[in-house]
Write a structure and sequence with these properties.
two-stranded antiparallel sheet, 109 residues, three-stranded antiparallel beta sheet, 2 helices, 14% strand
Length: 109
């Protein structure tokens, strides 16, 4: 029997694939949650979107409030001292932006 947290993670990965696909984007889940099963990916990659975007999916009971964009903002950007900035964005807005980017790339090819 699969551990509950593993099952929760697998369910979330499948949920994300459906979300990307419903937004018109191709998405593929790594077999066994091992990104090495996807072309050009390392073990920590869970999904590959449009054959290019490598995604690691994490589902938690709660996430830090500062990671969530406040009601009046589209995104939240955070950085640790001497670290790289990271952007958090609602999935719906992210899929809209991805569609625009990948349509432009396809049209330029």
């Amino acid at each position: 029997m699969t551990h509950p947290s593993k099952r929760k993670g697998n369910d979330y990965e499948r949920e994300l694939v459906k979300e990307f696909e419903s937004a018109g984007l191709r998405a593929e889940r790594a077999w066994g949650s091992n990104g090495e099963s996807l072309p050009g990916c390392t073990s920590d990659v869970d999904l590959l979107v449009e054959g290019r975007l490598k995604v690691q999916a994490k589902r938690r009971k709660t996430i830090a409030k500062y990671l969530k964009p406040p009601e009046g903002a589209h995104v939240a950007i955070v950085r640790e001292d001497r670290g790289e900035s990271v952007v958090t964005i609602p999935l719906e807005l992210f899929t809209v932006l991805l569609r625009r980017v990948y349509r432009k790339i396809t049209n330029e090819s």
